[in-house]
Amino acid sequence: MAFYFAQFLTGLASAASLFLVASGLSIIFGVTRIVNFAHGAFYMLGAYVAFTLTERFSGALGFWGGIVVAALVVAVVGVLVEMVLLRRIYHAPELFQLLATFGLTLMVQDIVVLIWGPDDLLGRRAPGFRGAVDFFGQNIPSYDLFLIALSPVVLGVLWLLFQRTRWGVLVRAATQDRDMVAALGVNQKWLFTSVFALGVFLAALGGALQIPRDAVHHALDLRIIVEVFVVVVIGGLGSIIGAFVAAVLVSELNAFGILIFPKISIILVFLVMAVVLIVRPWGLFGKPEAAARRTPGLTVTPWRPLAAGERWASLGALILAAMLPLFAGNYALTVGSEIAIYVIFAASLHFLMSVGGLASFGHAAYFGLGAYGVAFLAKAAGLPMIVSLLLGPVLGLLGAAVFGFFAVQLSGVYFAMLTLAFAQIVWSIAFQWVSVTGGDNGILGVWPDKWASSPANFYWLSLGIAALVVAVLRVIVFSPFGFALRATRDSPLRSEAVGINGKRVQWTAFVISGTAAGIGGALFAYLKGSVFPDSLGISLSVDALVMVLLGGVETVSGAVIGAIVFKAANIWLVSQTDLSKLVLGGFIVLMVVAFPKGIVGRLEAIWNRRRSSEDKKSALATSRVEVAE
Amino acid sequence: MRRRHLLGAGLAIAVAGMAGSAMAQSEIKIGEINSYSLLPAFTEPYRKGWQLAVEEVNAAGGINGKKLVVISKDDGGKPADAQTAANELVSSENVAMLAGTFLSNIGLAVSDFANQKKVFFLAAEPLTDAITWSKGNRYTFRLRPSNYMQAAMLVEEAAKLPAKRWATIAPNYEYGQSAVAVFKKLMSEKRPDIQWVDEQWPPQGKIDAGPVVQAVAAANPEAILNVTFGADLVKLVREGNTRGLFKGRSVVSFLTGEPEYLDPLKDETPEGWIVTGYPWYDIKTPDHDKFLKAYQAKFNDYPRLGSIVGYQTIKAAAAILAKANSTDPEKLIAATEGLSMPSPFGEITFRKIDHQSTLGAYVGKTALKDGKGVMVDSVYRKGADYLPSDAEVAKLRPKD
Q1: Chain B interface, mutation test: which of A315, A441, A579, A606, most B Cβ atoms within 10 Å?
Q2: CA of B158 to nearest chain A CA: how many angstroms apart?
Q3: What is the pLDDT of residues A214-254, one digit of tens each?
Q4: What's the gap in Å between the CA of A459 and the closest CA on chain B?
Q5: Residue among B318, B316, B294, B298 nearest B69 (CA)
Q6: Do B234 and B344 form a contact (C-beta atoms < 8 A)?
Q7: Distance between CA B331 and CA B335 in Å, rounded?
Q8: At A51, which helix (H) or strand (E)?
């Protein structure tokens, strides 16, 4: 009995660490609607700064003072980031801020290694909380008890702040209806900045408080960020109490789960999230999102198919691209194939995101399923390449059909997080089912048949399929189905009123998109000759998001350019510099500032402005002629 | 209009590729790949190690008069990116051989690439047994003592312990799984009387140490096998110390004596763990002294195990290239099979039968000295003594 109680307390201590960070993320999201990918980076910075300060100043005051000062210092950094970077892009399309914070995260990972060195650092133990308390023969660390006591205190303080101060009232009002708060004359700028500062402060405090239990190292951010997102979503976005309950739930399930299934930790949070979201689509304490007031379709220049001239230009560009093998070497051709494959992958997500209005955070699942499909068919069944290439993506299709059915019942960030949960479940199956998938050692020896094995032939194959997939997706966009999908995206109520079955349309779009991703994955397996669980992983899903956002989410085919720019920059930088993350992150941040609608979105805007002024001129000319007549 | 950019990007890459392929005939290039950005704690000392080796090789006249050049790439911890890098090295840089890699899955990906493209590959650090056995191929050789060898070295000591009830804690991925499997198998062969009472599989890099420690303690084992390393190890040790998990229990631990993993533990280093590692401060052989002096003089820092691995990888590559006197992969393979050479740990040989080197490891106990973790009572175990018989190896490895 004493053991179970001790295990319960241990779970609570884990929950406390999680809650501090999650509460900050929840507050930031609730008010600013920013999916703050950099939250983990602030957590890590908190730990590093606290390490330096507590090493420098000894004693109880030095330690506790160091923790608080570290959190304050990082909060100031957060304020600078908000004022210099995020303020510029609040009006960018939804999720665009994710791109900026992703760039920041990459930069911070390299910066901490530059400043603090590559070694894992061991922080001091907290003065007065070094030992353990004996509880019927079970040792419970006193620092755990401190953390357990701290989290309700933080919860209480936050509650008072939000319920009993004018600032808190404004924050709650903004969480519920930003536009109305702005209309009432509240200075949103400072409200956002102060909320961001508080959120970052909590993240950094969470990180700083870990130094007596953890090692400080450069991968801390990735370790926490996904888990914290999951906690916030399980609890319900913007709900602090929800975050608290979710943190406790997840930590306790883990503490007791490992007693029965020692391998459960790897997937537990995602399983819990999938179940919670299927049962309660807005999380445990969340409320249904109010219908969006601003219809995204209205802010966008209406889409149109390519004009005849543009079609010829695209065809010409494709022919030029197809001439690459005439003068490029094998390496350039292989990189070209890889870029073409990423074009397929990005275009498939782009279709779901911009045409369907459904941002998936787990799109790699269908890419990876396509790759595994090919690997199974080629290695286990020994089928020839053509057959495997045709049948492999079917696995992506099936996965998308099953997961898509559940996912399209939700919308917005909840949809995104459910897709992430499904992707992680697929990933963990590939990772754990060693006898079938080879686990993380993957499946080797999936090389193309002779006819496609030369880099030039494989390049032509990839380029051809990429062009086909992009063209087909465009055709679908301008088909009646595409119009129905866009109608559902722009106004669910009106589209329902004209007789469109929105869920079914979205589900179909999900399956189309998943299949297209599977085609990319199938080619990828042959390009690399092997398949690993990485190809189902979070970082690949994030890459896809980045490519779409970089290209421009409000465009028809911006992802094509986004994929080319991102992948080419990525491969080139990794090859050329040791600080590739710093440079790539900086590049993304610059792109965000320079192209707040994405590259293609920005170019289109310039193009349209020029054309509309030309139209006006000619319209003026015509009317003069009329008058003259 | 959309695809013009593809062409632009392609052109840029092609031009870069052509510039790189203008290779001077007086050079021999080695292409090196490792997870520099993902695992800097291990790969930075590793990089220093091979830089020292390159300097020494060229100071001694290079390879049959030609200058040795190492072109190094980061794989970011992803197998697919490692293959992109390998391809660049082979196709545009025209390297004579590939070398390096840390993670097992990346080692396997590059080894499969080498097999497909018929390129010589010297795997430096990946520990998986598969790379020389179940998925071995004729183009791949491996330097570091494998999982099996390290397990066999530890089992030799562990079997002497009186403990009968054992628990295991290992990261939940291939390395942890196969380390535990081999250790259990060899241990149960030597000591049929022992019982395995609990196993914990925290995700790599994400251990929630409190509940894990508590769960292991609840099974009340007499001895514990640990396979975690890096930040996970730090968390495990801290929780274990506070909760008294290690009190009165024997612990056997993979790799913990390597300075990369032992040094961060500082004054919290648990005492008396039986570990494999690298006690650079205690090795008094002329071969090692020479290496240590050169390393400290060049970098003003002490070596980690990564430094030894990086140094010996390039030294071995140079010896192979010198003996083959050619960059033809078949000649390189012929030259490497059975080749012996000196190393800071004494003479090593690349076995013909499975392409594994006989580099060994130090086995000893952890101790605290002046608030720092050290290895004491360490003995060098030769790799050759901890490999299965040739008949068994022949069964494990596919025929070429």
Answers
A1: A441
A2: 24
A3: 999 998 998 898 889 899 999 988 888 999 999 999 999 99
A4: 11
A5: B318
A6: no
A7: 6
A8: helix A39-56
Q: Which amino acid is at A113?
A: V
Q: What is the mean pLDDT of each run of 10 residues along chain A (629 residues)?
A: 88 92 90 87 96 90 94 96 89 80 93 92 90 86 94 94 92 81 86 94 95 91 88 89 94 90 87 91 80 49 79 91 90 94 96 90 95 92 90 94 93 88 92 87 89 91 96 93 91 89 94 96 94 91 91 85 92 86 90 84 82 64 43
- What part of A 514-533 touches B (C-beta under 8 Å)? 524, 528-530, 532
DSSP state of A380: I
Q: In this predicted structure, what is the pLDDT of residue B8? A: 44
Strands lying side by side in the sheet with B274-277: B195-200, B165-169, B223-226, B250-257, B274-277, B361-369, B372-381
ipTM score for this prediction: 0.87
A318 touches A271 (CB < 8 A): no
What is the DSSP track for B17-65?
HHHHH---TTEEEEEEEE-TTT-HHHHHHHHHHHHHHHHHHHHTTTBTT
| A314 contacts B3? CB cut-off 8 A | yes
User: Hey, is A531 helix, strand or coil?
Assistant: strand
Residue with tokens 């869920």: A503
Angle at CA of residue A102, ends A98 and A107, nearest 5°: 150
> Chain A within 8 Å of B147 (Cβ-Cβ)?
no
Identify the closest residue of chain A to B94 by CA–CA distance. A331
B94: left (phi over 0), alpha (psi -120 to 50) or beta: left
* Token pair 């397929």: residue: A344
CA distance A150 to A100: 32
